[in-house]
Amino acid sequence: MNPMEARILDEFRTVVDGRGLISSSEELKTYECDGLTNFRVQPRAVLLPTCTEQVQAIIRICHRERIPFVARGSGTGLSGGALPIESGIVIGLARMNRILEVDFPNARVVVEPGVINLDVTGRVAPQEYFYAPDPSSQSICSIGGNVAENSGGAHCLKYGFTTTHVLGLEVILPDGSLIHLGSKTLDTPGYDLAGVFVGSEGTLGVATKIILRIVKRPECVRTLLAAFPSTNEAGAAVSGIIAAGMLPAAIEMMDNLSIQAAEAAVHPNYPNCGGLLLVELDGPVAEVETLMADVSEICRSSGASEIRVAKSDAERALVWKGRKSAFAAMGRISSNYIVQDGVIPRTALPRVLSEIELLSKKAGLRVANVFHAASPAGSLRCANFGPGGSRGSTIRQNSRIVHCGGRLDHRRARRGRRQKESDVENVCGARSGNHAAGSLRFRSAAACESHESVPHSAPVRRENR
Ligand SMILES: Cc1cc2nc3c(=O)[nH]c(=O)nc-3n(C[C@H](O)[C@H](O)[C@H](O)COP(=O)(O)OP(=O)(O)OC[C@H]3O[C@@H](n4cnc5c(N)ncnc54)[C@H](O)[C@@H]3O)c2cc1C
């Protein structure tokens, strides 16, 4: 370590009271990647501040010494957002995990960024409120990470993504200045800069306080499972439900391979079928009962062979546990797989799914599909498996390395994957779903003119880090 580094580390140590500085190589290993585990970079140090003032002091030093920094919540991101920069530092927000204020009359909660998503609902549930954005990782991911990724989950069909629920932010900018964006009230005058910050993947600054909107729990919630011979019939039922003017709280679809994975992992007792729909309706009891009958009828006329409604809260929770575990559960059916998050218009789902099936057969790769089936632009998550499940090897895709089965024919996998990406883009979607404000999404946007992404995000990232 040269004297300059030692001096700076000492200064950092003073800021975080010694206990919040990690600099030994063994301990730094925890922080060298996020959920995109094929990219690993060991940072020079990790700092774990406990308050806004410490974050500000750290960033001021970084600005003065031109040290790159990356914010980190729980490290569950799938797009390398929290990947450290060599010679840079990681600012881990996990210790800033206090719920600072709960304001029931105005349905607002103020949190520090390291608060875990599910803990917000846990805190307000006794008063019949909940925090609506529900990424499948909600039991471990942080609100700060959710804000940076504009995370969403099954219930965002009705309730909207994180951006709908973030009203205000306290942010430390890359030069160390502190700003406030938005406020507790809706529609603060001026530009919606809080809206710009949400989804910017840490490229604009570090959020140190977040004002969230919470939602009153509906009188009644019902979850229906409908089993179809294939995803085609299930897709027709989704179109039927939306065409009938209904807005369910969630509509999720899983194909047979996803069902197998979920069953192996958490035993949700799903019907064994080619395409499974989970439809959740919430609202006043009378409305939900009527709409549930309509949904059942649409599913039946679209070819459903079995329709079930969860009978208890415990059964409903198990149904959702299966769906939310599906992605992580892929490890139960193959030790190596590639995840591809795509966004496509709802109406293009049948075409894209048929294409994926054709490509899967042609390339000899199993593909599992699990997705939010009815968002205006459906979010399609596919996992490709190699024919073998042995040790991993790597293939390069854009500038990212992704893992696949060791016995996989790399050229074939690469071709299949590129073909799938271009198919997704040809129907005016985007190859990255709810992740990657950086280069991946940037490149997608350039390739698909009608995509609504943020084409300047890659330069923003370079400038700020
Ligand atoms: C099994 C699994 C399931 C998942 N399911 C979903 C899903 O359904 N929907 C979904 O959207 N995502 C999902 N994800 C991805 C991930 O959980 C989300 O993107 C989540 O919001 C990341 O939160 P985090 O706290 O782990 O953030 P991290 O991974 O630590 O960081 C993510 C990004 O946020 C930035 N960041 C973190 N904190 C701050 C802050 N305070 N200020 C500014 N920038 C910050 C980081 O720099 C990074 O760019 C899933 C991941 C896994 C592993």
Topology, pairings included?
Blueprint: H1 3-15, E1 21-22, H2 25-28, E2 45-47, H3 52-65, E3 69-72, E4 89-92, E5 99-103, E6 108-111, H4 117-124, E7 129-130, H5 143-149, H6 156-159, H7 162-165, E8 166-172, E9 178-182, H8 193-197, E10 206-213, E11 215-216, E12 220-228, H9 231-243, E13 250-255, H10 256-266, E14 275-283, H11 285-301, E15 306-309, H12 313-329, E16 337-345, H13 349-363, E17 366-372, E18 377-385, E19 393-397, E20 400-404, H14 410-426, H15 439-447, H16 457-464
Parallel strand pairs: 2-4, 3-4
Antiparallel strand pairs: 1-2, 5-6, 6-10, 7-11, 8-9, 8-10, 12-14, 12-15, 13-14, 13-17, 16-18, 17-18, 19-20
Helix pairs in contact: 1-3, 9-11, 9-13, 10-12, 13-14
The structure holds flavin-adenine dinucleotide.
Give a verbal description of the structure:
With 465 residues, the protein is α+β, with helices and mostly antiparallel strands. It folds into four domains: 90 residues, Uridine Diphospho-n-acetylenolpyruvylglucosamine Reductase, domain 2 (2-Layer Sandwich); 118 residues, Uridine Diphospho-n-acetylenolpyruvylglucosamine Reductase, domain 3; 101 residues, Alpha-Beta Plaits; 116 residues, Alpha-Beta Plaits. The protein has a seven-stranded antiparallel β-sheet, sandwiched between helices. The chain has a five-stranded antiparallel β-sheet with strand order 5-6-10-8-9. It has a four-stranded mixed β-sheet with strand order 1-2-4-3, with helices on one face. A hairpin with a 4-residue loop joins strand 17 and strand 18. The chain is globular. The chain binds flavin-adenine dinucleotide (FAD). Flavin-adenine dinucleotide binds next to strand 3, helix 5, strand 10 and helix 12. The site of flavin-adenine dinucleotide has 36 residues, from strand 3, helix 5, strand 10 and helix 12.
